[in-house]
Structures are given as C-alpha cells and as structure tokens.
Amino acid sequence: MYKDFYFFNCCLEGRQLKLGETGFLAAKEVVRAICDADFRNNGSYLKDPSTNASYYHEFAKKPKDGLYLMRAVKAEDGTCLDVLIDTRLFPSFVLVEKNNDRLQMSEDVVKAVERSLNHAANKFGWQAKLKENQLNVVQHLDLFYSAMAYVKDPKMRADFKSVVIAEKIADDVMKLLDIYTKGKKLPKAIICPFRAAMDAGAIGKLTKTVFKKTYGNILGNSISALDKYLSDDYCWNEKDSVYSEMKEEFKKLVEKAK
Hints:
This protein is of the alpha+beta class and about 260 residues long. The protein contains nine helices and six strands, in the order βαββββαβααααααα. The longest helix has 20 residues, at about 105-120. The chain is elongated, with a radius of gyration of 21 Å. The model has no long low-confidence stretch (mean pLDDT about 85).
C-alpha cells in the first residue's frame, strides 16, 4: 500500500540579479544541487532562517538516482511527515505526505518546504514556487513505481536494530513488529507487541527518539504512552492472550539467536 501524498511541481523563475553576482546554475540543475548540498550538510542547507523553528527535517534514506526522502519533524511534539523530492523530471516533483488526521500539519509542511526551497534557490539566481499537480501516473508509470518503491519502508531501521539483542534476528523481529502493529489504532494496542518483544528478551529498552525515527507518527499525540506501557512499573496482564501469543513468537526468535 502506497502512502498518500500531495503532488507539487517545483517551478523556477529567474529573479532580478544584483550587479556582479555569479555562480548560477541552469534551472534543471538547481533542485538536485540544493538537495545534494543539504544531504552533505545533514539537513542544515535547506533551511529558511526567516521562519521560526516549528519544523526541522532529516533524511530518512540515502539519496538514490535523483530521489531524496526527507522527514519533516514538528519540534513541539516530534510528529513527522515524509517529503519526497524527485529531480529526475523537470520541473522536479515535490511530494508531501497527506495526513488526514492532521491536515493542518500537512499544509504547514508544504509551506515550510516551499519557503526553504525558495531561500536555497535564490543563491543560484532563481525563485522557487510549489504548484499543485494532478499527477498523470500513466504518463510516468515507471518513474512513479520506482519513486514509491524508494519511499516504501523509509523507516530508519538501523537505529532500531541497535536495540535488538542479536543482529541475526533483527530483520525477523522487525517483520513481526510490522505484522503486529499493522492496522492498530489505540496506543496500547500499538505498543503491546513492543512490550511483548521486550519481555521475551528480543529487544532492549526502547526510547521515544528511536521509536519516532523508526515508526514515525503512528502514536500521534499519544507518544507519552510509550513510557507508560514500556515501564518496568507497568505489569502487562499475562492472561492477555494476544500479548502472550506475541511474547511466545518473540521467544522463538530469541532461541534462534542462541
């Protein structure tokens, strides 16, 4: 299942140049140059200093063939949305994740991305503006599928793998967690498999930082529930058949690691 995105074209217009200005790029090269510089500078290049510190961004994956996947993070509570910039076509595509539960956040991220791209493009003699695009998927079917394949599973699994007890079972542990969390809505139901994995000895202590980097926004405003349900002071009901079955499956993986 693909994520739902807003699609935009990043349209560039030449700005009024100042006397003696040099170092400009052709329009087709601008957005890729900006994203490459941003990746080299760990997200500090693509930033508009005129805006407040409501959002910051980080790369969710290493860039690949002109594709750049970033994660816009709300500084206030750590909730995040994915932003994909595809520079393989001109004008470049900018895709911002659509969160139907937090539409205002999606709109805010679109504005922040536009301001940041415009600020960076100005250095090369251009002005950037995002214009919504009703994507013709059929026209660019191969590019669409390759972009979605790149976006699929953008989780920063390297961070999470550090809490799995053995590298040889890390992928299996994460596959089980993906299966057990799929379709869950309530915070306790989402956290249950993580607690089962901890109690089975498959993973160590899980911090909110690692959880957010790996699973993004699935807890929404209930991220504090992670501390509650993973706390040593919280005793999960062993008679809970769902929890017990999960715990047994994780125990099997622990045995596999020995």
